[in-house]
Design goal:
Layout: H1 3-19, H2 25-32, H3 37-50, E1 53-54, E2 64-65
Antiparallel strand pairs: 1-2
Helix pairs in contact: 1-3
Length: 74
């Protein structure tokens, strides 16, 4: 994991601990200082590919650290 990916992961982890749901791309941009949504999205995709984070396709704010277990009530 690169330093930039670690920074994004820490934002995601802390956001979950504080709010109970994932941050938006704009929220991550605010904390990391990135100015491009595509850059942040790419880092998030890489974290999922590495298995460090998980997400549900087509669900906003669904990215989470892989150690969290989420139960669906649908």
């Amino acid at each position: 994991m690169t330093e930039a990916q670690k920074e994004v992961y820490l934002v995601i982890d802390e956001w979950w601990k504080k709010f109970g749901f994932g941050p938006s791309v704009e929220d991550i941009m605010m904390f990391t200082g990135d100015r491009s949504k595509a850059t942040v999205h790419g880092k998030m995709k890489r974290l999922v590919k590495l298995g460090i984070c998980k997400h549900t396709p087509r669900r906003p704010r669904s990215i989470r650290p892989s150690y969290l277990k989420i139960r669906s009530i649908e």
